[in-house]
Each structure stands twice: as structure tokens, then as C-alpha cells.
Design a protein that fits this description.
- The protein is of the alpha+beta class.
- It is built from 5 helices and 19 strands.
- The strands form 4 sheets. The chain has a 6-stranded antiparallel sheet, with no helix packed on it. Strands 18-17-16-15-14-19 form a 6-stranded antiparallel sheet, with no helix packed on it. A 5-stranded mixed sheet has the order 5-4-6-7-10, with no helix packed on it.
- Helix 1 runs antiparallel to helix 4.
- The longest helix is centred in the first third of the chain and has 41 residues.
- It is elongated, with a radius of gyration of 28 Å.
Length: 353
């Protein structure tokens, strides 16, 4: 329901049907509107509806109600415009993060670690092959055992960790949403990425071909019908679950609760994780998936729930990073988060041109 519908509905209920006036006059500032059809065009109504607003015993009262309607509609249209602008601003910021020096478009490789030494450098016989213009033929190795990774750096190679020489450092991975230790060499960054029980070295390059050839995000038109208030229900204790990711690995997640919401008169449910801000993170799929939206899933973030309520704005539903980049890993939705309804809102599937 848009702002005009919210405003016009209550006023229609207030209108009495005692007399009919052929012509109406509504004053707003210095603007005079004298014909029902003109008013109808301005308000987005039918002329017959406008005439109904003048069915009052007193023409003055009729003019007052219509004036209220014009002013209220203008206010509602302004509120709609503010909302539209806020979503557009969010989408622009989202794309800017995606294209930034640290964004998902810079990921250029994911190399799985095996037990023992994993050599890296520009030589094609290395386990981890990096761009020749960035590193020497043999830059070092990652010694991997039982989930622990130690980096060894060849003499003279400027591989840094937090601004210092990285040789001999045991590296923190990103398992469990931990902040990983990031190695830098030139325009490249490397860190240990966990996917289920597997560990690999994820490489990022500011000069990534994927970044250079990115064609931009595509979105559905903003539609307030897909901005809905939901009822948030927390579990007595977090509900642990194992969900697959796009690579086939199983990841452990913890659902804090679920959101009940309605679309087009039907009620739906989505399980949600919580993030550090207190907001919710939701991975979902709907009947647009694989046709107009990314097949695997889309992501939705919310503000922290308040008094058992939370706003779901599907106009801000976004693609996972694997929609743009084959070197990323993304979770799939849990079985309960696969909705049997089309949600034509938010981000569309990424098209490579």
C-alpha cells in the first residue's frame, strides 16, 4: 500500500453522501483546482471518486475535506519519495562496497590446502600460483596440519602481516566468522579461508579482471508492497543446524529465531541468524530464483528487532558474492527458508555482458 492509498482510505470513510456538487474548488496555498477531472489527475483518482468528496450538506465543509486530501496526499507522496531515495542510496552504497579495493570483485583465487607444505609463487608448478608481476617464482610455502597454518617466506620476499615480516607466523583463519590474518604483497592479499572442514588460501587482487569487467548490479523497481513488518520469535536457545554451501561443503549455523510475515494475504516464515549489531541475517530462496534472481539464494539484512517486531525490506535483498565471483563460497538456504512465493523485489541475477 503506497502513501496515497493510506491517506485516501480513511478520508473516503469520512465522506457523507447527502448532496452532489458538479464542480469543486480546493485551495492549497495559492493553487486553485476547479474541476473534478483536474483534481482526479492530481490525486490519481477517478473523477467520480472526487465528486463523492463533495457530497456534504455544506460546500465549505466539502472544500475543507478535499483540501485536507490534497495536502495529505502531497505529504504522503513526499514520504514515498523519501523512502525511494533511501533505498536508492542504500543500493548505491552496496555497489560501491562491492567494487571497492577490498570488495568481493577482487577475489582472484581459492586454493585448497593439503597436509604438509603448500608452495606459492608465480611458477606454474607451485600449489598456489600467483600473478607473475606481483611475486617471484617461489615466494614461500604454507605448512598446514590439523587445521593450523604456518607461513614460511623465501629470503628477500616482502610478504607482510600487519606491516611486519610474516615469516614463521601461525595464521588465524576466518572459521566461525573470525577476523583472519591477512598477508600482503604488492597489490595482493592472502588469508586462510575455511569452508566446512576444508581450508584454503583465498587471494585478492585490486587489479582483478572480474573487478575491471564488472557491469553493475541490476534491481527490480522499488515497491513498498515488499517492505513488510514481521513478528520476530526467538528460540529458547539458539537452534544449531548444518547447511550446505555452494561448493558442497557443510557449514554450521546458529539460528536465533524466526520471522513470521505476510505477503499478499499469505503468511510465511524465515529463520534468522543474529549479527554483532543485533540485526538479523537471512538467507532465502523464492520462486524467482533461477529465473530472474540468482539461483542459489539471496541475502537479507535487518535492523535489530524491537518489541517482537522487525522490518523486512525485500527491496534491499541482495545477491551473495558467488553471484559475481566463482572464487567465493556462499551458504545455501535452510529447507525452511525456501519460500513457495515469488518475491520480485531487490537485486536481480547478475548478467555478464
Amino acid at each position: 500500500m503506497n502513501g496515497r492509498e493510506k491517506i485516501c482510505g480513511p478520508i473516503k470513510e469520512f465522506v457523507r453522501e447527502d448532496t452532489i456538487s458538479k464542480h469543486v474548488t480546493a485551495f492549497r496555498g495559492n493553487i486553485s483546482i476547479k474541476e473534478p477531472r483536474i483534481v482526479a489527475t492530481f490525486l490519481g483518482l477517478r473523477p467520480k471518486e472526487v465528486v463523492k468528496y463533495m457530497r456534504f450538506p455544506s460546500p465549505i465543509l466539502g472544500m475543507l475535506v478535499l483540501t485536507m486530501l490534497v495536502v495529505a496526499y502531497t505529504y504522503a507522496a513526499s514520504a514515498d519519495s523519501v523512502y525511494q531515495q533511501s533505498v536508492e542510496k542504500w543500493r548505491q552504497a552496496y555497489e560501491a562496497r562491492l567494487k571497492s579495493d577490498t570488495g568481493w570483485l577482487t577475489v582472484t583465487g581459492l586454493f585448497w590446502l593439503h597436509a604438509g607444505e603448500n608452495h606459492f609463487g608465480s611458477d606454474p608448478l607451485n600449489d598456489i600460483v600467483l600473478p607473475a608481476e606481483a611475486v617471484p617464482a617461489v615466494a614461500g610455502s604454507f605448512d598446514f596440519h590439523a587445521g593450523k597454518t604456518v607461513v614460511h617466506v623465501s629470503p628477500g620476499v616482502a610478504l607482510l602481516l600487519k606491516g611486519r615480516a610474516a615469516d614463521g607466523a601461525q595464521l588465524q583463519s576466518d572459521a566461525g566468522d573470525a577476523v583472519p590474518d591477512v598477508l600482503t604483497i604488492g597489490d595482493l592479499t592472502l588469508f586462510v579461508h575455511a569452508s566446512g572442514e576444508r581450508y584454503g588460501i583465498r587471494v585478492k587482487d585490486k587489479n582483478s579482471k572480474i573487478r575491471k569487467e564488472f557491469t553493475g548490479t541490476q534491481w527490480y523497481p522499488i515497491d513498498e508492497a515488499y517492505r513488510v513488518m514481521g513478528r520476530y520469535v526467538t528460540y529458547d536457545s539458539p537452534k544449531g543446524a548444518e547447511v550446505p554451501n555452494i561448493l558442497g561443503d557443510t557449514e554450521k549455523v546458529s539460528f536465533a529465531g524466526y520471522v513470521m510475515f505476510s505477503l499478499r494475504g499469505q503468511e510465511y516464515r524465515l529463520e534468522a541468524e543474529t549479527v554483532k549489531s543485533g540485526g538479523l541475517f537471512i538467507v532465502f530462496r523464492d520462486l524467482t530464483s533461477g529465473k530472474e534472481t540468482y539461483p542459489a539464494a539471496r541475502f537479507l539484512d535487518t535492523e535489530p528487532p524491537k518489541d517482537g517486531s522487525v522490518l523486512l525490506d525485500f527491496n534491499q535483498a541482495r545477491n551473495p558474492p558467488c553471484a559475481y565471483n566463482p572464487y567465493t563460497t556462499c551458504p545455501l538456504p535452510s529447507p525452511g527458508n525456501r519460500l513457495r512465493v515469488e518475491i520480485p523485489a531487490g537485486e536481480k541475477i547478475y548478467r555478464h555482458h
